[in-house]
Amino acid sequence: MTNRRDFLKVCTVPPLLTAIPRLATAKAEEALRLTATKTTKRLVPGAEYLESPVWAFNRTVPGPELRLKKGDTLSIDFINELDEGSSIHWHGIRNINAMDGVAGLTQPEVAPNGQFRYQFSLNDAGTYWYHSHAKTWSQVARGLYGPLIVEDESDPAVDHDIVLMIDDWLLANDATIDEASFGSLHDWTHGGRLGNWLTVNGKSRPTFEVSKNSRVRLRLINAANARIFGLNIPASAFLVTQDGYPVPVQETQDVILGPAQRADFIIDLADNDVSINETYNGDQPYPAAILKVVDTPSKLVAKRPLSQPALEAPPKSIDVAIPLHMQGGAMGNLREANYRGELRPIRELAQDHKKAWAFNGRIAEHHDHLAAVSLGQSVSIEVWNDSRWPHAMHLHGHHFWIQKEDGSFVDGKRDTYLFQRGEKANLVFIADNPGFWLFHCHMLEHHAAGMGAVIRVS
Ligand SMILES: [Cu+2]
Predict the structure, then answer these.
(1) How close are the terminal C-alpha atoms of the chain, in Å?
(2) C-alpha 389 – ligand 1 centre gap (Å)
(3) Ligand 1 center to residue 417 CA distance, Å?
(4) If you measure from the C-alpha of residue 446 to the centroid of ligand 1, how many angstroms do you get, rounded to a whole number?
(5) Ligand 1 centre from 60 Cα, in Å?
(6) For residue 394, how far is its CA from the centre of ligand 1 (angstroms)?
(7) What is the residue-level pLDDT of the chain in tens, covering all 458 positions?
(8) 3-state class of 214 per DSSP?
(9) Ligand 1 center to 242 CA (angstroms)
(10) Full DSSP string of 84-126
(11) How far away, in angstroms, is 227 Cα from ligand 1 center?
(12) By C-alpha distance, which of 169, 208, 389, 384 is closest to 289?
C-alpha cells in the first residue's frame, strides 16, 4: 500500500499556489519558533487598496502550518514582539493544563519581548489550530492564528492534503482593518465582530492546483471571530472528521462551521474544476476557493473505499450534572446579573463594564469556577441557550459528546458545538484531564462580554 510519504518520493505533485507555508520541523526535540509581530498584509488585491496592518505569527497570516504526527512532541518557543501581552492556545488539543495557553488562567500572559516554551505531546490526530488566547477579540481578528495538523498512520492515502483557513475581516474602505469598530458594544451584545471581506488562507478566492482524478483531503477551519460559515463542495465528497475527531463517513457536499469548528473531507475529483462555495451568508453561493484540475503525469493513490471509524460510546451514567442557563445579549431576557459580587442591572453591566452575557445569572471572570469535578467523573454540561443568538461553545482540555434534547447522541465527539438560539443540549465528557479548563463561547466578543467560565478537574 502506498502511503502519502512514499507517494511523494515517486512523483511530482504540482505546487499548491496558495498553500500555507509550513514551519519546517527539524529534530523533534528541537524547538521551533513562533514570533508574534506586527506586519502588513495585502488583504484586497488592486492598486487602489492599501496593505493592511496585521498582527501575525512569523509575519504570515495564517501563521505557518504546523504539521506533525500523532505521538510527536510539539516544541515551540513563542516570542512576543507585540506591545501587549499574548499567549498561544492549541485549540482542540487535549493538552496538559500548563501548556493550554490561556493567559490569566493557565499561565500569565507573555509580556512584550518575553518568551515562553510550549512543549507537549500530540496524542490526538486530526485538524486543529492555534491562536492567541489573550484579548482574543482583538488579537485573533488581527491575524494571530494558524493551522496545526496532526497526521496519523491510519489516515487514508491522498494525493493532496490542503488546509483551508477561512476568515472574515472587517475592513475600512481603503482595505485596511477597521480599527474604529474594535470593542464596539454593539458587536459584543449582538452577533460579534462580523467582517465584510472573506479570505481563505489570507487570500481572496485562492486557487489550488490539483491533479485530474486525484483524491484530496480538504481540512476546513473556521478562524473567524464570530461568523458562521456554510461550505458547499460540489464534487464526490465524504465528510470524515469534525473538530479533528472521526465521524461516521458520509457522502455529503455541505457542512456548517461555527467559529473555531473544523471539518475534513475526502474528495474524489474527476476532470473538472471544483469551486468551494460559502453558502450560509448572502443570497448567492460565494466561490471561496477553487480546486483547479490540471493534467499531471503523476501516479495517483488507489481510491480505496473509506472505512468507518470505531466510535467511542458515551458514558452510560452521569456523575456530575452542571446546569448552564445562558442568557443575555440584545433582545434577550436578562434583566440583571451578578457581577463581582453584586447584582447589577443589564444596562449598567453593558455601559459601565461591557458585560452582556451571563451563565446562571452570573457573569464570570477567568478565575471563577463554574464547577469543580473529580478526576475520572462523567460530567454533563446541561446547556440551555436562552438567548436570541447562536453560540459556539468550546471546552478546553477535553472532547465531548453532544446529547440532544430528545436524549439521543450526535455521532462522534467535538470540542466546539454551535448552539442555535433557544437550543438545549448536553455536552458530556469524561473529566480525565486535571487542571483549570475554560468553557466559553468562541464568538470572541461574547466571551469578552461574559460568556466564559472555568471547570476545575482535580
Ligand atoms: Cu456566543
Answers:
(1) 45
(2) 7
(3) 11
(4) 5
(5) 28
(6) 10
(7) 333 333 233 333 333 445 677 776 555 556 789 999 999 999 999 999 999 999 999 999 999 999 999 999 999 999 999 999 999 999 999 999 999 999 999 999 999 999 999 999 999 999 999 999 999 999 999 999 999 999 999 999 999 999 999 999 999 999 999 999 999 999 999 999 999 999 999 999 999 999 999 999 999 999 999 999 999 999 999 999 999 999 999 999 999 999 999 999 999 999 999 999 999 998 899 999 999 999 987 799 999 999 999 999 999 999 999 999 999 999 999 999 999 999 999 999 999 999 999 999 999 876 678 999 999 999 999 999 999 999 999 999 999 999 999 999 999 999 999 999 999 999 999 999 999 999 999 999 999 999 999 999 99
(8) coil
(9) 20
(10) S-B-EEEET----GGGS--BTTTBPPBPTT-EEEEEEE----E
(11) 11
(12) 208
Residue 121 CA to ligand 1 centre (angstroms): 31
Ligand 1 centroid–CA 419 distance in Å is 9
Pair 404, 410: CB distance under 8 Å: yes
**Amino acid making up residue 322:** I
Q: From the CA of 418, how far away is ligand 1's center (Å)?
A: 9
Q: What angle do CA 162, 401, 99 make, to 5 degrees?
A: 65
Please tell me whether residue 188 adopts helix, strand or coil conformation.
Answer: helix
Domains located in the chain, CATH noted: 11-294 (2.60.40.420), 320-457 (2.60.40.420)
Q: What spacing in Å lies between the alpha carbon of 129 and ligand 1's midpoint? A: 19
Distance 442 CA to ligand 1 centre (A): 6
Instruction: Report the DSSP beta bridge partners of residue 400.
Output: 414
| pTM confidence score | 0.94
Cα(257) to ligand 1 centroid in Å equals 14
